[in-house]
Predict the structure.
Amino acid sequence: MRGALVRAVVLWLCIAALLTAAILSAWSAVARDVYGAGSFARSYLQALAADDAAAALALPGVALSSAELEEAGLPADSSDALLRSEALGTIENVRLVSDVTTTAGTHEVTFSYRLAGQPHRTAFSIMSGERTFGLFPSWRFETSPLSVVRLTVAHTTGFLANGFELDSRRVAAGSEGAFTSTVPLLTFTPGSVDFSVDTPYLTASVDTATTTEVASVVDAKVTANATPGFVSEVQMQVNEYLDGCAAQQVLQPTGCPFGMLIRDRVDDLPVWSIASYPVVDVQPGDIGWQMPATGGAAHIVVAVKSLFDGTVSTLDEDVPFTLSAFVTIRNDGSLYIDLR
């Protein structure tokens, strides 16, 4: 009887030990897979992969103040214009590579992934905070996963970031009206941003900024060039302006680049025409778009009476001239052409 009782107690103790081990194992698995540092970093990457910038930015340790940016070695005046869902790149195949606890108690968590189709890895430094339910630790990024793209925008103020329209005048103080400016833009790490310009009048090749290391600064540049449509529009307006000059039946058309001085008496109204229009070439200058001084020719036909002997002859000749212009693209997309 006594031996049976001992066996029963031992059996129950074994069962209790197994249950305790199972509970501890389950707790450890939950702590690792649901509440672990790797899970915390994964939730950040999953938010980026889901184009949910707000969720990624809301995680502890991501958002930074100007002072914290400076402490992290990043420009304090960096704009948050790229920290939005519309400007996020494509992140796929997110996998945990390692989760190493350092001597300081922080976790160095490394993930692999494909960014814009290319394989990359990023290491995150994560520290624990207060425990959830008194059991599971909470986490925060010890080093924010934000980085900065130092973007130079040449010959324009408007640009595209992964297809999202931005304007340097609105994202960086001091760049108002600048024909070329450099703006610091906060971006998530990892991240891939294609910068470009694509308007009816301006175009620029894509320059991709890729950030795979947290708290890093990378450079990118977009240089806008005039499109054929830009040149055609300026050419049309130049031609219209010269046609208006040619319509004036005077020797010196007002506000025009050509005219004729005659010592004799004009016996009839002069007739102007444009023999050759300047061939427009729109180029970037120091402060804006310009058409450099370009040659053309007007043609005049007018009857002239000699003051010496009263004979009448016809003046029929080309009159060469040069024309330049300063071109501004207004905010509404129209052109203002200052002809000189």
Q: What stands out?
A: Confidence is low (pLDDT under 50) at residues 16-33.
